[in-house]
Amino acid sequence: MPCAPQWIDTKALLARVPLFDGMSPSELARVAGGAREMHTTRGEVLFRKDDPCNGIYLLVYGRVKLAFVTPQGGEKILEILDQGATFCESTMFLGEKYQVYAQTLTDCLLLFIAKPVLMAELAEAPALAHRVIDTLSRRLHDLSSDIESYSLHSGRQRVVRFLLREGRATPPESGDRRCDGEGGGAQLSMSVSLLVNKSHIASRLNLTQEHFSRILHELVGDGLLLVDGREILLRDVDRLRQEA
């Protein structure tokens, strides 16, 4: 179903985004005045590789993937973006064409902020430039971490790290205890709800879908996970942390 258009307070929304945090009401009003709302449905392509980049996107709600097509015709997902994310800053500032394509994974509401609007504010608000530097620095750090993970960690380690990062604490399973030599202790568990298809997660972790599924099966066989569709229970977080 298409996203139902709805009125949003663009100025208030921008004030909650780290990139624009701390800007004055008048500065936010100027940026909001140059922002364009985009209501999209699942599967829509926002831009394609080699399209010109004329601004940045803010994801108000929904999920978007950034990906490229491999020489073999497969898809490699670089990032899965969630609510509140901004993207395309570096491409816009470099004046380059998009090196990837962006496609919605759900119905989405986005704001597109044109390059002239941002450049005008950067000239007037040095603090905004500092926040842009912070944002791009974090992206570079995340990219370095990804390269390190692909190079130094096994597929199993990458899956375990992903599950630990995405997990949320749950009460210990009834009767599920661990003896640590000083008496029984409650076994720490966490749960994960996969919000996108397993194929997307596998691609993000630089794995094939078959390899990702095989690793999950191995972890279940080792007593570390319970898998029910997109719901995953991490039965022994301590052991998983040792593997990561």
Summarize the structure.
This protein is α+β, with helices and mostly antiparallel strands and 244 residues long. It has helices at residues 10-15, 25-33, 89-94, 115-124, 126-152, 155-166, 198-204, 209-221, 237-243; strands at 35-40, 45-47, 55-61, 64-69, 75-81, 86-87, 101-104, 108-114, 168-170, 177-179, 184-186, 189-193, 225-228, 231-234. The strands form four sheets. It has a four-stranded antiparallel beta sheet.
Describe the structure.
There is one protein chain. With 244 residues, this protein is an alpha+beta fold. The protein folds into two domains: 10-144, Jelly Rolls (Sandwich); 154-171 and 187-243, Arc Repressor Mutant, subunit A (Orthogonal Bundle). Helices cover 40% and strands 26% of the residues. The chain is built from nine helices and 14 strands. It has helices spanning 10-15, 25-33, 89-94, 115-124, 126-152, 155-166, 198-204, 209-221, 237-243, and strands spanning 35-40, 45-47, 55-61, 64-69, 75-81, 86-87, 101-104, 108-114, 168-170, 177-179, 184-186, 189-193, 225-228, 231-234. Strands 1-8-3-6 form a four-stranded antiparallel beta sheet. Strands 2-7-4-5 form a four-stranded antiparallel beta sheet. It has a four-stranded antiparallel beta sheet with strand order 9-12-14-13. Helix 4 (115-124) packs across helix 5 (126-152), helix 6 (155-166) crosses helix 9 and helix 7 (198-204) crosses helix 8 (209-221). The relative contact order is 0.13.
